[in-house]
Write a structure and sequence with these properties.
Blueprint lengths: L4 E10 L6 E11 L4 E5 L6 H8 L7 E6 L2 E2 L5 H11 E5 L10 H12 L5 H10 L15 H13 L5 E5 L7 H18 L2 E5 L3 H4 L4 E6 L2 E7 L1
Parallel strand pairs: 3-8, 3-9, 6-7, 7-8
Antiparallel strand pairs: 1-2, 1-4, 4-5, 9-10
Helix pairs in contact: 3-5, 5-6
Bound molecules: adenosine-5'-triphosphate (ATP).
Adenosine-5'-triphosphate (ATP) binds next to strand 2 and helix 1.
Length: 226
């Protein structure tokens, strides 16, 4: 099956004050559709940069990034943003929920921005599955860390993106909630055929993916398939 995400020889240098940091060095990666991939590697090896490049959040210097058959590197920033809104959901370590909005309002932000209609039935199913129906009127600061992360997962899922990019989604959670989040991502993959790419420091959680990619010094070095 064709890869849903394919990077070939991608290079990214962050132009610093003194010298540039090479965050990606001829980095290549292929991800199969509806698969769950984890990316592990030491701090600073380029994991977040790789995820941000796949999600079109940053521009790279050279190489090819093909997502769902579309080349991102030739797009303008606005085109990448539109592509991201249509196809990609992001989950972050610090949840990125707006504290002054209720849970429901947070969930509606992407729909409002995109002037897109909500599939109410689908959304209700996701909320039920993530056990969030009873917290919809609460504010994020009234929720536990695990609940907040479940809200951010719901926000990523309910727009039915084909790809979910999760950057250390369990980094701020205790063991029990961390395991639950990874199980939920697995379920999203199973139920909604979403492709999940998860960056983590946690080897035990990384092993729960179908494919584990190891990054070192700006490159994906190897992979294991279970
Ligand atoms: N915006 C930026 N400006 C300058 N340098 C950056 C920027 N973002 C990342 N870097 C540098 O690029 C390299 C890769 O960073 P990246 O955040 O991708 O690594 P990481 O593997 O995700 O690290 P961690 O596990 O600590 O989150 C690091 O040397 C980092 O200091």
């Amino acid at each position: 099956m064709d890869a849903i995400v394919k990077l070939q020889n991608v290079n990214k240098v962050y132009k610093g004050v003194t010298k540039g940091t090479k965050a990606l060095k001829d980095c290549s990666l292929e991800v199969k559709p509806s698969s769950f991939t984890s990316i592990i590697g030491k701090s600073g090896c380029g994991k977040s940069t790789l995820l941000n490049a796949i999600g079109g959040l940053i521009e790279v210097d050279s190489g090819s990034i093909c997502v769902k058959g579309t080349e991102l590197t030739t797009m303008t920033r606005g085109e990448r943003a539109a592509f991201r809104r249509n196809h990609i959901g992001f989950i972050f370590q610090f949840f990125n929920l707006l504290q002054e909005l209720t849970v429901l309002e947070n969930l509606m932000i992407p729909f409002d921005l995109n002037q897109q209609r909500v599939d109410k039935e689908f959304m209700d199913g996701v909320l039920q599955y993530l056990e969030l129906q009873d917290v919809l009127k609460k504010f994020p600061y009234e929720l536990s860390g695990g609940e907040q992360q479940r809200v951010s997962i719901a926000r990523a899922i309910i727009r039915k993106p084909s790809i979910i990019l999760a950057d250390e989604p369990t980094g701020n959670l205790d063991r029990k909630n961390a395991k639950q989040v990874v199980s939920l991502l697995r379920e999203c993959q199973r139920l909604y055929s979403q492709t999940i790419i998860m960056v983590t420091h946690d080897m035990d959680l990384a092993k729960k993916a179908d494919t584990m990619q190891y990054m070192e010094d700006g490159q994906v070095m190897s992979y294991e398939t279970t």
